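User: two proteins, same treatment. go.

Assistant:
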Amino acid sequence: MHQSVFFAVETGGTKIVWRIEDAAGVVLDEGRFATGRPEAAVEALVAAAGNRTVAGLGVASFGPLVVDPASKDRGLMLATPKPGWTGFNLSKTLAERLQAPFVVDTDVNAAAVAEARLGAGRGARAVAYVTVGTGIGGGLCVDGRTLKGALHPEIGHMFVRRAEGDVQPSACPFHPDCAEGLAAGPAVQARLAGRRLEEADEVRAVTADYLGQLVAGLVFAWSPDRIVMGGGVMSTPGLIAEVEAAARRRINGYGAAVVMGEGGYLVVAEREHAGLDGAMLMARDGVN
C-alpha cells in the first residue's frame, strides 16, 4: 500500500518550493527548483510525489489567478509576464496528475493563514499579512478563512501620495504612484544607489512614509486586529516601527485607529516559509 501524504507547493517569480508531510506532520521530503515553464514544473512536482498517495494538495501561487472556489477556472493563471504561465492552471493540472483534491490561494493569502495560526498573528481573529520584497502583496485571514472576491487583494497597487520633491520613477510598469512602484525592493534599490537602507536616512523616511500610507489604507479598509509584515525590505532593523509611526500619523487618531491599540500593532513575520506553511495547512484542511 502506498503511503498517504499531504503535498504543499508555493510558486514564486523565480523559484518553486514544495514539501511533503505524512498524516502526523512529519516532513518526508522537500525541495525547490527554478520556476521556469509551467509544464516542466508539473513534471518535477509529479516526480517529487513519486508513488505516494496524495490525500490533499495545497498550492500557494503568485498571481493574478482565479481563486474563487466556485469557479470552474479555479487556479487559472491570468495575464502575467512570466513566459508560458498565462492561461495555465498548474493546480488543476497537478491535481489531475496526482489524482488528489486540491486547494489553491495566493501566496500572500496562504502566508496570512500560516501567520494567523502558527506565527506572529496567533491569538488575533483578523490577521493581515503584507510582504515587501521584489513586489508588494497582501492577504487577509479572518477566522481561518481568506479574503477572496471577484479576484483577490492586490494591495501593492494601491495608490499613495508622493512625498514632496520625490521624482523617482515608479518601478511599476502599470502605475506611476502605487506602493509597489515606489516602495518595493526595486524602487528602494534605485533610491539607494548601492548604499544600505539602514545607512540612508532619507530613503528610509520616504519608504516608511509610503508603506505607512499603505498600512493606513488597510486599517481603514480591513480593520485587522494585527498586521504581520514580511519580505526582504522589512528585514531592515527598525523599519517596521517607522512604518507603524508613519501609519499612525496618516490615520491621525480617526475611527479605525482604535484597532491599533497602544503599540505593537505591526509585527514582523515569524514564519520563514509562511506561504509554504499556509499551503500545507490548506492541503490538510481541504478548505479554500
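Protein 2:
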Amino acid sequence: MILAKVTGHVVAPQKNDELRGSNLLLVTALGDDLEPIKDRTYVAVDSVGAGIRDLVLVEEYFALHKQQYKAMSIVAIVEKVHQDK
C-alpha cells in the first residue's frame, strides 16, 4: 500500500463500464517525512469517499476485475500517522 495525499479530481465522462459511477482522484505518494514525492502522482478510484487534502491509503493493484485491467484504488482515509523519531 501507498500512503498518499489527495491533490485533485479527474473528470472522465467516458469510462470503462466497470468504472461508471466511480469517482477518480489524483493522489500524490508521501515519503517517510510525510512530504510529497516528486513524480509519484497517480489517478486512483475512490472507494471510500475521500476528498481533497485527505491522507489516504492506496492499493496499487486492487482491481475491480483483475483479469480485465489493473487499477489503483483508495482503500482507506487516514486519520493520524504516528512515527518514532
